[in-house]
Amino acid sequence: MKTEQEYIKDLSEIRAMMERTSKFMSLSGLSGIMAGVYALVGAYVVYRLSYSTEEGLENTLNGKILFGDAAEILLLALAVLVLALGTAVLLSWQKSRKSGEKLWNSAARRLAFNMAIPLLAGGIIMFIFFFRGLEEFIAPVTLVFYGMALFNASKFTFAELRSLALLEIVLGLISFYFTDYGLLLWALGFGLLHILYGIYMHLKYEK
């Protein structure tokens, strides 16, 4: 006859097993840190390449003063995205291998699908704004739709991701009003917030 403590232990093990099968738990905090670093470096390079140094932090994403090569900016943004995604996949694969789990499981597929829809919609809107000459709205759009993607994904991975998602959305909404500080707010959202989130997740789940 099992004791009450043994039943509680069994229930805890069953709950942990169900969570592993329904949620993607191989997301690495270090990947968040690296994504933040890539974003900060990318934002700095865009600022140095594309904007007048006399403007300071103001007007960092205002279409009226943009004089950099648009193709260079898009290629740089793509490079940052590829680096961030590549690092996330690599570190998540290493984490899943250590825990003896498959990386591309049903939870990972659900997470990817729920992230892809708002990211695709945001990407289309971003390109529409870009080709229509509305560059000042690119940073707000990317922040808001990225936040929505993270909020969707939080249902299939760590619940803490929801807090990061809401902060990204709030920054995006602020950026819609303060468009002159678009690049600065973008760097805060994709750079600083990612680094802080990654450090928190690493210390909580990976140390």
TrEMBL record:
The organism's place on the tree of life at top rank: Bacteria
Alphabetized UniProt keyword annotations: Membrane, Transmembrane, Transmembrane helix
Residues spanning the membrane: 24-47, 67-91, 111-131, 137-154, 161-178, 184-203
Identification of the protein by name: Uncharacterized protein
Record organism: Salinimicrobium oceani
